[in-house]
Amino acid sequence: MLKKMSSSMSVIFLISSLLTVNVHAASGAAVNSGITFYKDANYSGTAVTLGVGDYTMNQMNAAGIPNDWMSSLVIPKGYLVEVYDNDNFTGTKWTYISNLSYVGADCNDKMSSFKILAAMFYIDANYGGTSVALQPGSYTMAQMNAAGIPNDWMSSLKVPKGWTVEVYQHHDFTGTKWTYTSDSPLISSDANNQMSSVKIYNSTPTTIGDWSNFQTPTVVFQDQAQGLEGSSIFQAAIPNVEKMMQ
């Protein structure tokens, strides 16, 4: 009898463990598929995860986000979001590049439209298979690998409006170069699975002054202060301030 009970308990524990793993895996997948918007501060309340794209108020509402709604957000590495306080990407704009437990009093519950931006690289054609998001910057093979993109990998890509992606056949931006300024469901056969380094430019950056020629990741300046965490985000966006000042 005890042996049967022990076996039953083991089965129940195993099933419970598997269910727990599946729940955590599903949660992780949701976060990594785009940016997650939370109704309340500290990543609490109703949450909606959305991928790269431009969302007017109607599109935002259709996706499950009401107007003037959002107090915190989770941004996976490689993504950027521009939040607007009016419809159709007008009014005050706040730009975020990392997680925020509170977006600040100015932006809190003010979102009426937004844009999620990232250059998306896919292992398979037609935007299939594993994907990796990257922000503007220059990526050697080592940096590309560190971001999750293996050497000689990439069959399709999505390029935000106003951005340019330069794909190089060899490391350190050498060899044949292929330039993309729009989405490509299937890159040319000579470029397929050939990427060993890459440069991403934002041709219409949101900046103060002209910083676009720097080969470090493009700095992003905020149009409004971003609450308590704004200072840390600003510092994170400028990794080489001393070099820029020389």
- Separate helix tally: 5
Reported by name, the CATH topology of the largest domain is: Gamma-B Crystallin, domain 1
| Low-confidence runs | 7-31, 207-246
Which second-level CATH architecture of the largest domain applies? Sandwich
How many structural domains are formed by the residues? 3
In whole angstroms, the N-to-C terminal distance is: 79 Å
Strand runs, count? 14
Structural class: alpha+beta
Order of helices and strands: HEEEHEEEEEEEHEEEEHH
Name of the CATH first level of the largest domain? Mainly Beta
CATH superfamily caption of the largest domain: Crystallins
Beta-strand residue fraction: 25-35%
The proportion of residues forming helix, as a percent range, comes to 10-25%
Q: What radius of gyration results from the CA coordinates? A: 21 Å
Strands of the biggest beta sheet: in what spatial order?
A: 3-7-5-6
- Largest beta-sheet details: 4 strands, antiparallel
What does this 3D model show about the protein?
- The chain has 246 residues and is an alpha+beta fold.
- The chain has 3 domains: 1-32; 33-117 and 206-238, Gamma-B Crystallin, domain 1 (Sandwich); 119-202, Sandwich (Gamma-B Crystallin, domain 1).
- It is built from 5 helices and 14 strands.
- The protein has helices spanning 2-32, 57-62, 141-146, 230-237, 241-245; strands spanning 35-40, 44-50, 53-55, 72-74, 80-86, 90-96, 113-117, 119-124, 128-134, 137-139, 156-158, 163-170, 174-180, 197-202.
- The strands form 4 sheets. Strands 3-7-5-6 form a 4-stranded antiparallel sheet.
- A hairpin with a 3-residue loop joins strand 1 and strand 2 (44-50).
- It is elongated.
- The relative contact order is 0.12.
